[in-house]
Amino acid sequence: PTSAPGSFRVLETAYKLIKTCIEHDCVAISLKIIEAVAMRLDALAHLDTDVDEARLRQCNVHYYALRVHLAWIQGRPDIADHLFLKLPDLNTGDCCALDICFKVGSSALSCRQYDVAAKWLERGLQQCKVLVSSSKESDVALRNKALLTLHALVRANKYLDTHDSRDNLARALEQLKSLYSNVFSIRLLELEVLARGDRDVEQYFQGELCHYNLEQLLIFMAVLQDAFKAVDASESSFRMCGCPARMTRQLSNP
Question: Which residues belong to the signal peptide in this entry (predicted)?
C-alpha cells in the first residue's frame, strides 16, 4: 500500500514478523525485513499527504528498538549502543524500548557481562519512569516489568565493585523494598545482598555502618521474618489470583 494507513499496517505486521523470526533464531530473515521497513519509513516521511506524526514516531521507536536487539544478537554491543541513542522521543506510552532494554540487559546478565547488563537495565528503569509518569492510571503490567527490571538490576550491580555500582545497588534495593516489600523473592534478594558483607549496602539496611556482629545477625533475622510474612501474604493472594505466582516463580529462579 502506498497510502499512509496502508503503510502503517504493513509496518505493524513487519514488526511482529521480525520478533517471531528473532524468537526462532532466524536473524538473517529479520535483517532482510528490517531493511524493507527502513525503506517504508523513509517513504512515509516524504509523503506529500498528511501523515499521523505520532504514529510515525511510534513506528520509528519500534524500528530502532528492533535494530538494537538485532545488533546485540549479532554480537555488536557498540552498534546497539549507537542505535539506542538514536531512538526518537520515548514518551509514546509504548513499552517496546523498555522491553528491548530488559532483553539486552538480561542477556548480558546471563553471559556474566555485569557492567553491560547494569547499563541496559538502568536504561530500562528510566523507561519505566517515563511510562509511569505519562500513565494516568495504575498499570499492573508496567509494575510487573518494573519489578523484573529492578530485580535484574540488583543482581547485575551486586557483582560489580565500584562506587557507582554500590550506590546503584543501594538505590535499586530501596525502590524494591518500598514498592514490592511483600514479594518473597525480594526479601530473599535482600538476604543475598547482605551476605556479601558490603558496608555501603549495610548502611541501606540499618542506617549506619556496622561490622560482623550481633547487630548484623539481628538484621538478617528481621529481613527473614519479613520474608516469612511475605510468604503468608502471598499464599492468601495466590488463592485469589494465579498471575503473581508466576511472577514470583520467575523471580525466584535468577
Answer: none
